[in-house]
Each structure stands twice: as C-alpha cells, then as structure tokens.
Amino acid sequence: MTRKITFKLSIILLLSLVLAGCGGQGSFENETNPEVLARSCIGCHGTDLSGRSAPSLLELDGKYNEQEIAEIILNGLGRMPQMKNFSEEQASLLADWLLEKQQ
C-alpha cells in the first residue's frame, strides 16, 4: 500500500514540475533584457528555441509580425499559456528579439 502511495505522489510531483516549466511564470518585474525574458520560453520551446514540446520559435518570420508575437506572448494561443507576468513593453522586446533570431 505504501509503495502505491509513494508512486502516485512521485507521478504528481513529476507532472507538477513539467507543467511548471511550461509557461515559466517567474517574476520579470522591470526586466528589459530579452535574453532573460526568453528564459520563460525554454521549458516548452527548448534551450535553443528550436522546439521541444512546443513548436520552434526560429521560424516565425513571415508568419507573424512583432505586434502579433507580442499579443501571443501576452494572451496565449492554442496550447501556449498567456504570460501574465510580462508587461506590454516586455512582450514587445521579446517579440522583436525573437524576430531577430529568425533563420
């Protein structure tokens, strides 16, 4: 009985950690460095932004402009959660930075 409870608690903890990594809702108050802001992306989009459990962020050029990317960051889209901890200015900085990284 104890092994079953331990196993179930381990699964719950693991799922919590995975879900917490996607959407990274840490504090970015007053942050203006887009590379720091991008840390919230790596949980789902990978450390190099080429995709992981979410699509690549290196192929956005032509699909979205800076304003559309900023809106997606702020409001979410599909499986992507809204980034409640980002200001409009931060979302715009990150969107511009992402467009600069396009291949």
General description of the model:
With 103 residues, this protein is an all-alpha fold. It has one domain (2-100): Cytochrome c-like domain (Cytochrome Bc1 Complex, Chain D, domain 2, Orthogonal Bundle), CATH 1.10.760.10. The protein has helices spanning 2-21, 34-37, 42-45, 66-75, 88-100. Helix 4 packs across helix 5. Mean pLDDT is 81; it is low at 14-21. This is Mono/diheme cytochrome c family protein. Residues 1-20 form the signal peptide. Residues 19-102 form the Cytochrome c domain. InterPro entries: Cyt_c-like_dom (IPR009056), Cyt_c-like_dom_sf (IPR036909), Cytochrome_c550/c551-like (IPR051811).
Give the overall shape, derived from the CA principal axes.
elongated
Strand content: under 5%
Rg over CA atoms, rounded to whole Å, is 16 Å
Provide the CATH top-level class: Mainly Alpha
Under CATH, the topology can be stated as: Cytochrome Bc1 Complex, Chain D, domain 2
CATH superfamily grouping: Cytochrome c-like domain
Low-confidence stretches: 14-21
Mean pLDDT: 81
Termini distance?
54 Å
Helicity, as a percent range: 40-55%
Total strands: the figure is 0
**Number of helical runs?**
5
Order of helices and strands: HHHHH
Q: What is the number of domains?
A: 1
The class by helix and strand makeup works out as mainly alpha
Largest sheet: none
CATH structural architecture: Orthogonal Bundle
